[in-house]
Amino acid sequence: LLKQTKLIIWDEAPMAHRYTFEALERTLRDVMSSFSNSKTIFGGKVIVFGGDFRQILPVVPRGYRSDIVHATINSSKIWDHYKVLTLTQNMRLKKNGNDQEIANFSKWLLKIGEGRLSEPNDGYADVDIPKELLILDYDDPIPAIVQSTYPNLVDQYKCPNYLQARAILASTIEVVEQINTYVLSLIPGDAQDFYSCDSIDRADVNDCEIFETLTPEFLNSLKTSGLPNHKIS
């Protein structure tokens, strides 16, 4: 499949450690060397990396700023082989050209990314979020954000366009569960539960005594980012 591939697209590339790109480059060069005598970078494949360096960079546990800079893609030895293309038009704004609110919000985000929103600083600065983006009057944050994001939910929850047009983002899976539980309590009818089927791979390579302690009950209890819970309602 890799030999037949003409184009590989990697989105959010600045978030990944530079070693991942170097590993991909060596792998493709090795795979393609058995197909031809070419030793070109990435095995001669066209790779499109997309992303914004103003957003989240690679996470280096307990690392300093210098460690993060060293881990970014543009610190890699293969960066000189990249051709950088810069997007100059905000296509979302172009689609919603008459929406001044979106235009102002986009300009505000751009100023944050470029470090132009606050006084000159060394990389650490306080950012005041505009009041129109905050929910100020509430007793419980969960009902408040649900009401703000999903107004008239009880009347609209069966409408696909209504649900596709909005979303609530949370930093932890615990908060996601709280929001989901509250939303389910608002929707009429009985909730339907769906369960995962968790088991250990019994292949010979995984023949280890420690796997015997990993029961299905233990696997069902695991909750981590990137994976759905054992029970989803």
Largest sheet: 2 strands, parallel
Quick check: average pLDDT?
86
Helix run count: 9
Gap from first CA to last CA: 38 Å
Taken as a percent bin, the fraction of beta residues is: 5-15%
Q: Please identify the structural class as seen in this structure.
A: mainly alpha
Strand-and-helix sequence, N→C? EHEHHHHHHHEHE
Helix content: 25-40%
Poorly predicted tracts of residues: none
Overall body shape: extended
Widest β-sheet, arrangement of strands: 1-2
Question: How many strand units?
Answer: 4
Radius of gyration: 24 Å
Topology:
Layout: E1 7-10, H1 18-33, E2 46-49, H2 65-71, H3 91-95, H4 100-113, H5 141-149, H6 153-156, H7 160-164, H8 173-186, E3 194-195, H9 216-221, E4 231-232
Parallel strand pairs: 1-2
Antiparallel strand pairs: 3-4
Please characterize this protein's 3D structure.
One of its GO terms (biological process) is DNA recombination. This is ATP-dependent DNA helicase. InterPro entries: DNA_helicase_pif1-like_DEAD, P-loop_NTPase. The structure is a single chain. The chain is extended. It is mostly helical and 233 residues long. α1 links the parallel β1 (7-10) and β2 (46-49). It has 9 helices and 4 strands, in the order βαβαααααααβαβ. Among the domains are: 7-81, no CATH class; 89-134, no CATH class; 194-232, no CATH class. The mean pLDDT is 86. The strands form 2 sheets. The chain has a two-stranded parallel ribbon. It has helices at residues 18-33, 65-71, 91-95, 100-113, 141-149, 153-156, 160-164, 173-186, 216-221, and strands spanning 7-10, 46-49, 194-195, 231-232.
